[in-house]
């Protein structure tokens, strides 16, 4: 049940937001003064005790300008994941290891206010009718919210925290996640417009790797990115259009799905289409886009290996349309390369496999392993090994057309 205090606070906050909608950069002190002046206009505020007035002013300020205790965590660049199982049970992932955070929100109500603030900034809605939502923070960090009672132990929120400075390929080479040889090979494939699919498990670094590969796309090309929740941060791409799905709501605002985005993107004169992640029936449209002129397109998906990714894509296509399996497998050949990422037992992220899809044989998709990570032991808890080249690219036509020398 909403209290008079909550109603008054909401009314003051909305009026302050309306006042500050000039678009000008406003200092925190000015915002706080605006909150104080606006609050005095409301009888509900004037009737409060001094302590409650001060608390209300602080809550309104934090809800407009801050994210409460999340601010402290988001400032720490070594934290990659923030996992809130409830308002008073918070875990973080730091340098690949999960630990419990000793802070908590002051109340369930405050926790829910922050969730609504994050979600509303992305024009998303989370409530009893729509208890699961994906959103993002201003820095691009991904947010997932599941409300109680769907989350049995309390409303949970998970934040995939992205670094302020996007990773570069040189960073991955320095960390031993990929070799310079393989990085140069993938760069040539991107420039030559090979269709590339990045696979891996949760937290393997698929989005970050896709960002890095996208940085190799020539500046003169027009790129359309399609995402459920915008996370990609492409650089050096002046002709860039970013599209994001939308959930439906109770005001007859229909949902805009990934399939809708893929279909409309084909009418936007793209050179390349980048799909943040393929999860379902949009798989069919993505493959058709790759197969009908949008060469050099890229996407990501969840799987345990490069081979498993093909099986998953087959399943997603079968769930989307009643097509013969043979026809689906022919469509899958529009993907030229699969790069599989993974996390090893020492929490390090690596490029584990690079596959080429070479054709069909007896109805089965044929794959050729080009690079594979081979372990060489363990030292002080760190896995030793190197990404090794084990095969040569078969389909070299695009490389030749792009002007790259191809070894015979």
Walkthrough of the structure:
The structure is a single chain. Helices cover 34% and strands 25% of the residues. α1 packs across α4, α2 (28-39) crosses α4 (50-65) and α10 (258-265) runs parallel beside α11 (282-290). The protein has three domains: 4-65, no CATH class; 70-160, Beta-Lactamase, CATH 3.30.450; 169-401, P-loop containing nucleotide triphosphate hydrolases (Rossmann fold), CATH 3.40.50.300. The chain is elongated. With 408 residues, it is α/β, with parallel strands linked by helices. It starts with a helix and ends in a 7-residue tail after the last helix. The strands form two sheets. A nine-stranded mixed β-sheet has the order 9-8-10-11-7-12-13-14-15, with helices on both faces. Strands 3-2-1-6-5-4 form a six-stranded antiparallel β-sheet, covered by helices on one side. The longest helix has 16 residues, at 4-19.
Q: Key terms for this structure?
A:
14 helices; 6-stranded antiparallel sheet; Rossmann fold; 25% strand; 9-stranded mixed sheet; Beta-Lactamase; 3 domains; alpha/beta; 408 residues
- The rough form would be described as elongated
What multimeric state do the chains show? Answer: single chain
The sequence of SSEs as H and E is: HHHHHEEEHEEEHHEHEEHEHEHHEEEEH
The profile of the biggest β sheet is: 9 strands, mixed
- Helicity range: 25-40%
CATH hierarchy class name of the largest domain: Alpha Beta
Tally of alpha and pi helices: 14
Low-confidence stretches: none
* Proportion of residues in extended strands: 25-35%
Tell me the name of the CATH homologous superfamily of the largest domain: P-loop containing nucleotide triphosphate hydrolases
By CATH, the topology of the largest domain is Rossmann fold
Structural class based on helices, strands and sheet pairing: alpha/beta
Q: What is the total domain count?
A: 3
Spatial order of the strands forming the largest sheet: 9-8-10-11-7-12-13-14-15
Any idea what the CATH architecture of the largest domain is?
3-Layer(aba) Sandwich
Radius of gyration: 24 Å
Rounded to the nearest angstrom, the distance between the terminal CA atoms is 74 Å
Number of strands: 15
Mean of all residue-level pLDDT scores: 88
